[in-house]
Design brief:
Blueprint (H helix, E strand, L loop, with lengths): L22 H18 L3 H14 L5 H12 L3 H9 L9 H13 L3 H14 L4 H13 L3 H14 L4 H12 L4 H14 L4 H17 E3 L5 E3 L17 H11 L3 H7 L4 H17 L2 H4 L3 H12 L2 H8 L5 H10 L1 H13 L16
Antiparallel strand pairs: 1-2
Length: 360
């Protein structure tokens, strides 16, 4: 399959001085800048010519041959890209991106096992590379080895918890399962890490649909949730109920059953109400003591700031854009206030507080 890296390696030389001691190095840099522009226009052939000239002028830099390989890969000349990248694996300035692109090239030539081998080689030098675990997961996903894919992506979250792509794939894959609880958690973290992209739009719709599929109403007094099929307690855990059960119980008691029954639909507004009730109930019951969760802590902060409505409508907006637009027209000032605050306040993820279902 074709996978294009969205981060071009050459951009990492942004700190590269414009006032080089060597005129050759300066000229090489200028040629490479032009080549990048040509690649962005899809003119790979001319871009490669300029990059080859840059490489001759400054042969010690790894950037120029990498960009040549990137252009070849983007033009689907995978065998040629492999030839260039194999020669860079032992370069003193090698990065994880070399192994990522090389593995992708092998995968696109129909050699997934070789791709996995390359990613693992890269992990020997870059053990905390979320990118390399991401790519292994993608290879396994398209081979329909879904459990293996999940293992790789969750390992990627563990070693590189601020890298968004592993959360993206976990949010997607769990939405297809009976364990949708993990979809809404991984997916919402992804939206916080990657706030404005095509993938963010996609995940917004996935999460809205996942909530709708997981909430059911039987009457104006009866309803429940289906976020997980876990229904039993593991006696090895001293009768501490599983997180999935605690979540499900709290979510059920948070349902706006009469509102949903009256409206005969689950809307952004009803999901917002449920989430508002859930976060209050979760902390009132002190569930946070048994199940620390940075996402719930962030939701609690949003609620305290008076921004939880705006946040919920924003991240679920692609589920019903007309409903969002109507809400926004009536709440423009508070939404803009929230947006200003939100742009400056990230979800703070560290190696200690990161979310993973494996912690539960």
């Amino acid at each position: 399959m074709i996978r294009i890296n969205f981060l071009v390696f050459f951009l990492t030389i942004s700190s590269f001085s414009f006032c080089q001691d060597s005129k050759k190095e300066q000229k090489a840099y200028e040629l490479a800048i032009k080549a990048i522009d040509l690649m962005n226009e899809g003119n790979f052939k001319e871009a490669i010519k300029l990059l080859e000239k840059a490489q001759k002028l400054d042969p010690d830099r790894i950037d120029y041959p990498y960009e040549i390989a990137y252009a070849l890969y983007s033009n689907e000349k995978y065998a040629n890209a492999i030839g260039v990248l194999e020669s860079l694996k032992d370069h003193p300035d090698v990065t994880e991106l070399i192994f990522q692109l090389l593995g992708n090239a092998y995968d696109n030539t129909g050699k997934p096992d070789k791709a996995i081998e390359i990613y693992k080689q890269g992990l020997k030098s870059f053990p905390n590379s979320g990118r390399l675990y991401l790519e292994q997961g993608i290879v396994e996903y398209y081979r329909e080895k879904y459990d293996n894919a999940i293992d790789y992506w969750e390992k990627g979250v563990e070693v590189d918890p601020t890298f968004s792509s592993n959360y993206y794939w976990l949010g997607k894959i769990f939405s297809y399962t009976e364990e949708r609880i993990w979809s809404i958690l991984y997916g919402e973290i992804f939206i916080n890490l990657e706030r404005n992209s095509d993938r963010t739009v996609e995940m917004s719709k996935i999460l809205f649909d996942t909530y709708k599929e997981s909430i059911y109403i039987n009457s104006d007094t009866s309803g429940g949730v289906r976020f997980s099929k876990v229904m039993t307690v593991d006696p090895k855990k001293k009768f501490k109920i599983p997180f999935q059960i605690a979540f499900g119980l709290t979510m059920t008691m948070s349902l706006a059953i009469n509102i949903i029954y009256e409206d005969q639909e689950i809307s952004i507004g009803t999901i917002n109400t449920i989430r508002q009730n859930f976060i209050s109930n979760w902390y009132n019951q002190k569930r946070n003591k048994d199940y620390p969760n940075l996402l719930f802590d962030f939701q609690k902060l949003l609620k305290e700031k008076g921004f939880f409505d705006a946040y919920n409508y924003r991240f679920l907006m692609k589920g019903n854009e007309e409903e969002f637009a109507e809400w926004y027209n009536n709440n423009e000032s508070i939404f803009n206030e929230f947006a200003e605050w939100y742009n400056e306040i990230p979800l703070k993820i560290t190696s200690k507080n990161y979310f993973s279902r494996l912690k539960y």
